[in-house]
Amino acid sequence: MAPAREAPPPAKKYFWGDSPEPDEYYASLGLRHAEAYFQSPCGRLFTHSFHPLSASHDGDVKGVVFMTHGYGSDSSWMFQTIAINYAKWGYAVFCADLLGHGRSEGVHGYLGDMEAVARAALSFFLSVRRSDAHAALPAFLFGESMGGAATMLVYLRSPPDAGWTGIILSAPLLVIPDDMYPSRVRLFLYGLLFGLADTWAVLPDKKMVGKSIRDPEKLKVIASNPRLYRGPPRVGTMRELARVTAMLRESFGEVTAPFLAVHGTDDGVTSPEGSKMLYERAASEDKSLILYDGMYHSLIQGESDENRHRVLADMRAWIDERVRRYAGSGAAAEAPAA
């Protein structure tokens, strides 16, 4: 019999506690926030938007940032602290729970078709990107962890007129560390069942959360997320992540957009070698890589306040400079044709 799973900490209503209510909380930060569902071609997505209260309408912002969360997570808990920071800097931020995550459609924790996952997110992002309020603004893609892999896939599958000004990647999943890599024998054996085992949550649990978060108090908050996927990795998810990361590495040379990749050197979930390889192989003329000595995987949600402020300051400096450099100039690289 499998050992009993450790019960999650008592749930709070929100990641900041049981009060205040959301509208009051966001207003106290100088922000307005909205939630909605979006019907993509591949399934319904749950979405968020964040705007500075100083913006009288959607166009009164520096630019637009489209954010993608990591594996097992969603956009409604601690991940939104990243969105909140960007909105406080003067950006309109849009997030979507990936298929199989949070309140979006799909089997919980299942990513058996990353092309569909990326297509769904891209559909939402482009619906905002092409709106009258945002079409003329600088626009950035942001991805954290597995969301970094999804973001790269979104970029590579974007039409040339998407006009992404830049990409920001936080500890992107581009190389799976050896001790996190799924057993090829297990994947082969389950593959003999001709897809019947694809959604089975039976692969060994690598305890990713514990390898991601340095700050124990932040770990408690993250672990209390009521929508966090807590089961073992599903067969199709690990098979697909292994396939997609290998494919992305072969496509690094197609990346021409400006980008910033940040990674902790002690990341036990996604290898910093992936960020190094992207930096070395990408065709982008404007590319930046920052490695943080001794930091873990979750650079913003799980590190000490001192470390997270350092990472956020580097991100803010980079994006503000790209807005200054490229806004209205047409200098940002186009995405490769889908």
From TrEMBL:
Protein name: Serine aminopeptidase S33 domain-containing protein
Every Serine aminopeptidase S33 domain range: 60-302
Transmembrane residue ranges: none
Superkingdom of this protein's organism: Eukaryota
One Pfam family of this chain: Hydrolase_4
